Amino acid sequence: MSTPDTAVPDKGASTPAGSGDSLFTRLYTGTGAFGIVANRRKFYILTLVIVAVCLASILLRGFSFGIDFTGGTKLTMPAGDVDEDQVSMVVEEVVGEEPQTVQIVGAGNARIVEVETRFLTTDEIVDTKNALFEEFQPVSASGEASVEAIGDSARSESWGGQVTEKALIALAVFMVIVFGYIAFRFEWQMATAAIVALFFDVITTAGVYSLVGFEVTPATVIGLLTILGFSLYDTVIVFDKVEENTRGIANTTSRTYAEEANLGVNQTLMRSIHTTVIGILPLLALVIIAVWILGVGTLMDLALVQMVGIVTGTFSSVFLATPLLVTLKERSPEIKRQTAKVLARREKAEARA
């Protein structure tokens, strides 16, 4: 929901309108009371710190890759009253090392235990199945306790690598198309700022996964691509308002380009907040359903990466893309001349006053 345009005093960012109003009043009226562009150096520093921490974590800690990337053997059996720690101990006694993951997925009678380990030999698979059967007596589909109730499958690490390679190619193509469209629809400065914001989203989301230790699966990689669309949508909405405010600005002396851009961000700020909240709520519900009803799986992976991506996308759209746009625009001679004329007019007005 976009807010109505409201007049801003000539001093713009230095004395924002509505600065004495409450926080919610300033958010909803969009009068330019928040000096986002005026404080862009602080946001640049914050952005650099976030990127540095994320890159350091990626380089030093790395990622917790799932079996689809590392390769290995996956065993499944009906859960019943099985405890994950007990299953882990039984498997460790047979294979000589702790399994990569042990998790219970599904709900009700459909609950199963999934065990992911390194690549096991045929003899190790047989021994592990027998040990699990002796300990837990899983019941097969026929209703009888049988070792056949325990299934196994091998996962090749090349499959996860192929998914990642195709995702990176898709990401590169997406970036080129986005740059071309925004440069054609708006201008190259906006296209550059939007691409930088998208790279920030990718690095930050990947960094959060590295820091927290979330498991990276093919679903995570696919989900990472989906969040870029959300971030781009939010950025384009802000840019559209900025373009509307700055159209023909070279012929005016009421406000500078930076002040008009800051007004545009303020006028769309509440919309960005609403979009973020509305986007996160169903994802929270999806996480709850995935964990408590269906069990941890693909839905959980998709929901997690999209929740992280939506938050980072909103930050980059508001606090990075538009401030960076202003920095790029202020390098042009036309904007420099217009800014000088605005400041000169204000000095004359103050002198007369």
Structure summary:
The chain is an alpha+beta fold and 353 residues long. It has helices spanning 23-29, 40-60, 67-70, 84-95, 122-136, 157-185, 188-212, 218-246, 257-293, 298-329, 333-352, and strands spanning 64-65, 72-78, 101-105, 112-117, 151-155, 215-216.
Description:
The structure is a single chain. The chain has 353 residues and is an alpha+beta fold. α7 (188-212) packs antiparallel against α8. It has helices at 23-29, 40-60, 67-70, 84-95, 122-136, 157-185, 188-212, 218-246, 257-293, 298-329, 333-352, and strands at residues 64-65, 72-78, 101-105, 112-117, 151-155, 215-216. The model is unreliable at 1-17 (pLDDT under 50). It folds into two domains: 12-64 and 158-352, Multidrug efflux transporter AcrB transmembrane domain (Multidrug efflux transporter AcrB transmembrane fold, Up-down Bundle), CATH 1.20.1640; 72-155, Alpha-Beta Plaits. It starts with 22 loop residues before the first helix and ends with a helix. The chain is elongated, with a radius of gyration of 27 Å. The protein has eleven helices and six strands.
